[in-house]
Design a protein that fits this description.
The chain has about 350 residues and is of the alpha+beta class. The chain folds into three domains: about 90 residues, Orthogonal Bundle (Recoverin, domain 1), CATH 1.10.238; about 90 residues, Roll (SH3 type barrels); about 90 residues, Alpha-Beta Plaits (2-Layer Sandwich). It contains eleven helices and ten strands. The chain has a five-stranded antiparallel β-sheet. Helix 2 crosses helix 6 and helix 9 packs antiparallel against helix 10. One of its GO terms (biological process) is monoatomic anion transport. One of its GO terms (molecular function) is mechanosensitive monoatomic ion channel activity. It is found in: Membrane.
Length: about 350
Amino acid sequence: MKRLMNIIRHGALSTLDEQIQDSTQEDESATQIRSEYEAKVAARKIFQNVAKPGSKYIYLEDIERFLPEDEALKTMSLFEGASESRRISKKALKSWVVNAFRERRALAITLNDTKTAVSRLHRMVDVLVGIIIVVIWLLILEIASSKVLVFISSQLLLVAFVFGNTCKTVFEAIIFLFVMHPFDVGDRCEIDGVQMVVEEMNILTTVFLRYDNQKVIIPNSVLATKAIHNYHRSPDMGDAVEFCIHVKTPAEKIGLMKQRIMSYIEHKSDHWYPDPMIIFKELEELNRVRIAIWLTHRMNHQDMGERFTRRALLIEEMVKIFNDLDMEYRLYPININVCSVPPMASDRLPPKLNKSAELDDT
């Protein structure tokens, strides 16, 4: 367990297909994780080596065989639901290793994109500095006369007039990418009301991946003028669940419902913070009351799938509570007045009516 944590924290976990040059470790290939499948295989091997034979969980005493007590407790806190139950399931271990691999892969891609952007910026600066050095060299050697300098300056003015807007765009993109730097590769962002994941960062453009895997390319100069909501850099975020009950629902049922919902949320302490707010939000059409539950995740909304999974579990529990308490939603009766009946288009009667008429005749 400690070796796996050191591999992930200190960079021995490879997320790209490249090999480390001049490596002297003979078993380094055995510690390389290049895909989520290999991460799951590594988690399975770790579980088999740490857990007792035939056990479905890793307990605190299993980890204490490898780590001191204080470090073992810190290790338990890294896994979902392990702090309260004092045990680590195979699913929690696998999820932790896969998430660590994803984060390191995103970090590696970010560093690679930043390195590429810096190299391109370095080429641009080299060209500009080269032109300045050539001009200074001509002046020092007195090769360039005043007429030549006037000609060069006029050409520079022409170039500035033609490519001035491009130079401005490039400068704004560089400021946005290296100074503002509002996101990294892999961050989930919301721009103009659309949630997208950053896939690639260049000097002039940024490539996003939309929820339906459609690539969206936006110039950095345009992004600099927009509000960017970054989920990955946000702290633990809140959520809300709203539902309606009938206005005549007894207060005892409402109190019991709130108590059971609070108990479920406090029991899922690895998913939610305790003490959520359950309020009567508003009264609608005098026959139903809207109730809102405001609660806070123990995560941000970077992993949107995990967010909706936890929310779905809460809603399933709420439906179970409503069924157990026999809480139902009723509408007011509606009066229907039939003013006229259209004439019958056929004289044929249904078979049942025909049989009843024959019986009457007999």
